[in-house]
Amino acid sequence: HNDVLESLELHSTFWSSCECLFDDDIRAITFKAKFRKSMTSFVKMSDLATYLEEKRSGVVLIKAQISELVIPVPAAQKIALCARSSLKSIFSSLPDIVYTGCAKCGLELETDKNKIYKQCYGCLPFTMKKLYYRPAIMTVADGIHEVCIHVGSKLMEKILFNISPDWLNRVIAPPSEVTFRAVAADLLHSLLAGGGAPCVLKLHSLFVLDENSCPLQREFSLLDLYPDSGEPGPSALL
Q1: CATH code given to domain 37-96+135-237
Q2: For residue 125, is the peptide bond before it cis, meaning its omega torsion is within 30 degrees of 0?
Q3: In Å, what is the CA distance from 96 to each residue of 38, 80, 165?
Q4: CB 224 within 8 A of CB 237
Q5: How confident is the model at residue 168, as a pLDDT?
Q6: Who wins on pLDDT, 174 or 36?
Q7: Which pTM does this prediction carry?
Q8: What residue segments make up the domains of the chain, in order of their start?
Q9: CB 219 within 8 A of CB 206
């Protein structure tokens, strides 16, 4: 452990192997518990109806059901995934929710007539490229109340158990033929399945009110997402 850079260095040998550990793997849980810093700040838990009535800007935990995930795609109008979406259709749509962008700022890179990616002029001389998940709009509901939440690229990756976009076509572990793309599709299908358990969502909200406290504008961004296990885990309170 590098105390100056606050990073962990892993040294490999010819006999070392690499395996992806999902967040619910006991080995991943044990490993992260050793390095997780304790925090004393708490975020208020609220239901969606109460939160919308209070019209407070800030950070809050909401328990709600995810009903739809819409991903804007330049080549098409949008990709809309919901409880009616089949596992096959979700699997087929995954390549379209990934884009190649600047590895420094995340800007999507266009291609020229020869299908060569153009440079990100704002970050020159940096020219590295990286694959990203496209940001999405998540619709969540709690009874009759419903809101749309902006989900950034990093949160999309976390929802997919930190499966990197460039892993989608890799097999999980030979000799298995199951790919990370199949796992990601199954995760989204389970998340959106009708009648599924609600999730605890950590949101940042912004309410712009008029002189009568009526909302002129409201925006919601997803900061984190946790399965509903009665109470949010320690990381939900950071």
Answers
A1: 2.40.50
A2: yes
A3: 39, 12, 11
A4: no
A5: 93
A6: 174
A7: 0.74
A8: 37-96+135-237
A9: yes
